[in-house]
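Meet our chain:
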Amino acid sequence: MHVLIVGAGIAGLTAAIALRHKGIDATIVEQAPKLTEIGAGIQIAANGSVVLRELGLEQAVAAKSVIPQSFDMRDILTGKQLWEVPLGDAGTRRWGAPLYNIHRADLIGILADRLPPASLRLGLRCSAVQQDESGVTLQLDNGETLSGDVLIGADGIHSVVRQQLFGEDNDDVQFSNILMWRALIPAERLKHVDLPERGNYWFGPGRTLITYWIRPQNLYSILASVPSGEVRRESWTESGDIDELRASFSGLEPRAQAMMDEIDSAFITGMFYRDPIERWTDRRISLMGDAAHPMVPFLAQGACQGMEDAWVLATMLERHRADPAAGLAEYEQRRRPRTTRVQSGARAMVKMVHESDPQRIKSRNGRWKGLQHIDPLSETTWSFVWEYDVLKEVDRPAGEVLGLSATREAKTMERPESQRAFEMWKSALTPEDVARGHDGMREGYERFLTHHFPLRDANTVAEVELGGVPAFRVGAAGTDSPLILHFHGGGYMLGSARSSLEYASRLADAVDGQCVTVDYRLAPESPYPAALDDAVDAYRGLLRAGVAPSRILLSGESSGGGLALALSLALKMAGDPLPAGIVAICPFTDLTLSGASIKDFAGEDPAAHRDGLALMAASYFQEHEPRDPLVSPLFGDLRGLPPILLSAVEGESLYSDSTRLRERALAADVDVTFLPIRDSVHVYTLFPFLPETETTLKTLGDWAARVLGEPTRATA
């Protein structure tokens, strides 16, 4: 087999080496006349380092690079530490390989030196590609034609091969409205500045400084990003105006300012990306690296994802020697879901670190503080990229790859109706939703609920206010009928009372009464105790309106279930009269994420996974202690609480939050009715077409009649 590769960047060069490692010949065509020392620093995390190790290149890379001891995130104006990610020896032990900082030119040189000179054709531009059943043809601009069995476009964000395959698509290149200054400073100019071998990062309103050593105590790399409006458009050239750079980065904390003052030249580029595409491959031609999935640099994964591509490509072509098209199809099947997730995650990180509003910056910093409470190694932020070992993954079934929802792509449920619910959860958020951070996730979750679960009859709804907290009432008003006070889910960060109305109407029907769903404040804008304060005020508002506590049932799903339990604990502590009962469906009760099911069922639950749960939990408790029972009611003194109707799904991430709560409640002599559900999804009661939903709501009606002291429906 002979593979033609267009583009001699990191992805293309690594692919050629990996192919030769597998006994497959490869020729690279590169338009540049020589591989010069361009670019600046890049980072190779563990998921890229394992590929270099397997190809026998890690030692050469280690000799020319720096292993940072940590990522230190600081405020650009005060120098206050905001977040620390341990690396060095601790990171190597955790992730299985070091993270290397290296000059891009040094890495390109190491890769190119591993290839026979004849396999690297420089100064030639691709003008056309063709294919038939027997092979591929690459037409060069000098009139030469190359033939092979497979052709790979590794020619960057403006890929000619991509255009040849799928048409002109320059319009879908997206500008992030951020400009990036890149500079290199020799070590002798920084002797007076304390810059340890760490990722020395600073964040300010709308701007960042990502800086680190790339040659040990020899050369220092700076990536400085600013809003595009701060630089005159005509100066968007390779060489930027240093005065403009200095204007954007003035008045910094002393160490950052001393570092920036030593820059005497820099070049500037825009930060561009493309959205994930539905297809990379056409029979014997495919894409890789930035040609397939160009991403913004704020997960430092551009090079690493190209290296992963290279190893999977080479492995799949080795396995499918008799059918290269099948090899490329499986290559894409394994790679596209993963790179889509990384692309979206990188854009979300860009948004997070470039916040400009003071309140949003405060919320972000609080979230980072919260993450350090429950995740000192920053695994929930970085493990989805760093922990991935492509050498092992290629030996697992192709359907095991985790896509955007962090769920195995090939996972299926036993029943068609549960599969329908599973697919609805899996597609609830789009790549764009995730890329826009909590704002996009919030909009996506609202769209998911209102589209799939529209309210049946708007005439049954009334807006109300309880203790100053907005809410909606569904069902007939009255002080004598059962009343469910409901708290929606969404990890304290997503959801609303309005989008929970359809479910609220079914809860009201289940108890032959009414349901009031509360529009409590959301994190990260309103962290703990805002949601709990609103819950307490809403409950007391009901009592002031004349509703007897003996007629009230608290209800919630997921985080709403946790909030209902926390409300009960708060009421008990305050000496308030308690409600008649609590309904908790798949509740989120342990915001420390210590439940075994979060790890045991990783890749199984499209609605909730460790990374997303950590983001939402830390956004909620921020600088508060997460083991506080009013944050994580699992750790509370449950004695004296009213009866609890508890349900969870076997195989969901939060299953152990419910099983441990049941054990603790029973030990505290609380009346607990537990409904474990098989072959279903998180918060299954949102899905009215599931048989288990109907069964659970029927059980709720009978249980409510019992705890409210009424005859059951069957008896009535």
